[in-house]
Specification:
The chain crosses the membrane at residues 12-33, 80-99, 119-136, 142-162. This protein is mostly helical and 164 residues long. It has five helices and two strands.
Length: 164
Amino acid sequence: MNLPKKNSKNLTILFFTGYVLLMVSMIAGVTLVDLPNINEGNTVEKVNPTFEEALAAYEQQQAEKKAEQEERKWKVSNEFVMIAVTIGAVLDVIIIVIWAKTQNRKLKEAKETNKRKWLYSKVFWNIVALGVIQPKEKQLVINWYNLIGVTILIHLFFYFLFMN
């Protein structure tokens, strides 16, 4: 099929011109023609109640999950807390006494020094051991009055804190 060159050029121009006109007419038809929406009144009424129902169901599901998680938590009784605090306080005193004994042994073995150490400060021991251990004659000794007093005060504090 041998067409003259002039004819094939005209045919190409005619094809692309028709294509451009078709596209322009389709775009104009979509943008300029306003069709009435048949379901306009129904969609608004159906969407809102459906959304509200779904939202209420979701909130209820979240509340059930939260209540289930609250039930799973381990409830600690006040008596258990008192026992745990007592055990912790006893272990604290035992650890401090053992540490003080090892420090006293180290001081006996070491040479005599005139350095002022933080270890012999009453302020330090009042903060760290609540006054239970006190330095006396360059040794750490247990102050039994402070030990008994601190034990009673801590247990009274926890009693008023947890039992009321």
